[in-house]
Amino acid sequence: MSEEFELDTDDLTRRMDGAMSNLKTEFASLRTGRASAAMLEPVQVDAYGSMTPINQVGTVNVPEPRMVTINVWDKGLVGKVEKAIRESGLGINPQLNGTIIMLPIPELNEERRRELGKVAGQYAESARVSIRNVRRDGMDQIKKAKNDGMSEDDQKLWESEMQELTDSYIKNVDDALEAKQAEIMQV
Hints:
Elements: H1 9-29, E1 44-47, E2 50-53, E3 58-64, E4 67-72, H2 78-87, E5 95-97, E6 100-104, H3 110-147, H4 152-185
Antiparallel strand pairs: 1-2, 3-4, 4-6, 5-6
Helix pairs in contact: 1-3, 1-4, 3-4
């Protein structure tokens, strides 16, 4: 009989947490009709010869529910920040006021809300696939240990533990998706 097998659940949990974290970041970038500083996180500005996140070239504020402002620190970057926002695909038309860029968030129509709901669903499915890939890696470790002499009872025990972990994370993804879709459809 081989030495006692120990599944590295910390590593598997960390990887599943990474999938959840990535999902939350993707959900934050979805515009729901309410202003949020997080919606600008994926936008990069060509500043000083490298691509830089917007929050590193100016202060991002949400002064009211339908407005985001960016106070750009370097006057020479205002045009580049405005261009980055226009080209980001957010569908927001920036308005300049000196070094302050104002981003009015338009009302979402019903059709756009449905499209955003579908995009949220795609993000959630991507997270589920990532979690299932982690599960598969864990199951492969268990099968390898079985081939190295682990008992069948231990194999079943580890497989059920792996499945419980996976199910809990899939449920978290489903709950997050449900909450995001409710937020998107809220008028």
